Amino acid sequence: MFRPARRTASRAAIVTALAFLALVPGVRAGMADTFAYVGNADSNDISVFKMAESGEMTPVQTAAFTGVEKPGSSTPLAITPDRRVLVAGVRSQPFLAVSFAIDPRTGQLSHIGNGPLADSMANIALDRGGKFLFSASYGGNKVALNPLQANGVVGEPKQVIPTGLNAHAFLPSPDNRFVFATNLGSDQVLAFALDATAGTLTPNDPPVIKLPEKSGPRHFVFHPNGKFVYLIHELNGDVAAFAYDAKSGAWDEIQRSTALPEGFNGKESGKKPWAADIHITPDGHFLYASERTTNTLTGYKVDGTSGKLTLIGSVPTEKQPRGFHIDPSGRYLAAVGEMSDSMTVYAIDQSSGALARLKSYPTGKKPNWVEFLSLP
């Protein structure tokens, strides 16, 4: 409670307090600008949008991939923790990681240079320190670690590790001690210990997390509290919740739900589940998953104590929603459709987690990945 005497606080104290508030998670700095970056596979470029407080998007740039001619099957993106560099993976030969400098004032991209990838990589991610790029090859059945050089360009692969079938995501743990790789075709997740000083990976003990047969583990996300992991399965539409042991890197399944909308019956329709992406709000209250056969987004409430999910419901979205993301404020979700060449923005109800469609925007061709960034 503020008392009358506090009105005499010095200007310096007020400035200090405001600076502190700007650093507190969940407190939106008035000067921060938010940008969305959309990777477009068939047009070999990135659509850059500036997002207003209302969720309205304004296109500000189309950044082409310098030195790339042929389109790949998708365009994964990753942003360094210091928010200075965006890296895009190119899935046509020669397989490249294209690096862009991010203008801290305008959010626009400037090409820095290209580095080599070990194969056609379906997924890329940076370690928590921004020193290494992790990548997963679906067709090549491998994962790789590349150093990120001081200038922001990706260096030669330092490690290339064979995996089970169809590696699809390769992401670090919240504390950067472990890295996990989904193997969609082998129904498993591989676990590696990361030496972030040397930049080396070694199999964890145990090295494999087994999952139900023909489930197709694809993408996963950690709860912000670091205690839970949520994994979406492409082939059966399951969303599984796991308790996560940060000390050992172990996953222990606690619940299994679905990303398929109510009433879906694959046997009757002849259509199979084709789940894609999964993300959680920054406060950890709500989780969302995309499903491509039904072109839907499904939402869940998250119990931060138990880690368990409660279904909110599904909403229609872009055609073939391979990728989506949630903005840093946790108030908006943007989903892109590979078959619609557009992006739809939704408002997230802060009490219920329900999604309300706001507006759609044209993107490049075959959009499949969204990254958000708030600057400065």
Structural features, described:
This protein is mainly β. It has helices at residues 11-23, 266-269; strands spanning 33-40, 45-51, 57-64, 77-79, 85-90, 96-102, 109-116, 123-126, 132-137, 142-147, 159-162, 167-172, 178-183, 188-195, 200-210, 217-222, 228-233, 238-245, 250-258, 275-280, 286-291, 296-302, 309-316, 323-326, 332-337, 342-348, 355-362, 367-375. 5% of the residues lie in helices and 50% in strands. The strands form 7 sheets. It has a 4-stranded antiparallel sheet, with no helix packed on it. Strands 4-5-6-7 form a 4-stranded antiparallel sheet, with no helix packed on it. A 4-stranded antiparallel sheet has the order 8-9-10-11, with no helix packed on it.
Write the layout of secondary structure elements.
Elements (H helix, E strand, L loop, with lengths): L10 H13 L9 E8 L4 E7 L5 E8 L12 E3 L5 E6 L5 E7 L6 E8 L6 E4 L5 E6 L4 E6 L11 E4 L4 E6 L5 E6 L4 E8 L4 E11 L6 E6 L5 E6 L4 E8 L4 E9 L7 H4 L5 E6 L5 E6 L4 E7 L6 E8 L6 E4 L5 E6 L4 E7 L6 E8 L4 E9 L1
Antiparallel strand pairs: 1-2, 1-28, 2-3, 4-5, 5-6, 6-7, 8-9, 9-10, 10-11, 12-13, 13-14, 14-15, 16-17, 17-18, 18-19, 20-21, 21-22, 22-23, 24-25, 25-26, 26-27
Question: Can I get a quick summary?
Answer:
With 376 residues, this protein is mainly β. The chain has helices at residues 11-23, 266-269; strands spanning 33-40, 45-51, 57-64, 77-79, 85-90, 96-102, 109-116, 123-126, 132-137, 142-147, 159-162, 167-172, 178-183, 188-195, 200-210, 217-222, 228-233, 238-245, 250-258, 275-280, 286-291, 296-302, 309-316, 323-326, 332-337, 342-348, 355-362, 367-375.
